[in-house]
Amino acid sequence: MFADFLKRLTAPASDPLTDTDARLALGALLVRIARADGDYDPQEATRIERIVTERYGLSPFEATALRKEAEALEAEAPDTVRFTRAIKDAVPLEDRISVIEAMWQVVLADDARDAREDALLRLAANLLGVSDMDSARARQRVEKRG
């Protein structure tokens, strides 16, 4: 299942992702940021489920299933550059800032920022066409909400 998805994701001139594929790609990107520090905390997994539940109107069962698929996809996914490019192509600019907010929610879920998470988030924001300033504002909004 993932082999075909990854082939489409990394094709030089890939078509925009379907809604289902975009959900899976975003979930995998959130898993990648959660795993960046080498400690995939249960709080981060829970936060990923909460994000996809709110973003896509999923049931708890559907959110858990999506997270598990995203974990498997992330483990097989190519480098972050090609992976993020597919999300950029599928998500309008104004919605990409909400992707960065979701990533910050995952980074901050375990109450411990790590330099590796920060570096990956900065890379992803840049690849998504989101400025450092907009990313910082997204982080501040997430911190304010607690």
What does this structure look like?
With 146 residues, the chain is mostly helical. The protein contains 8 helices and no strands.
Helix content: over 70%
Total helices: the number is 8
Distance between the ends: 37 Å
Low-pLDDT windows of residues: none
Proportion of residues in β-strands: under 5%
Shape: globular
How much is the average pLDDT? 86
E-strand count: 0
CA gyration radius, whole angstroms: 14 Å
The description of the largest β-sheet is: none
Instruction: Return the structural class.
Output: mainly alpha
In sequence order, what are the helices and strands, one letter per element? HHHHHHHH
Compact description:
77% of the residues lie in helices and 0% in strands. It is an all-alpha fold and 146 residues long.
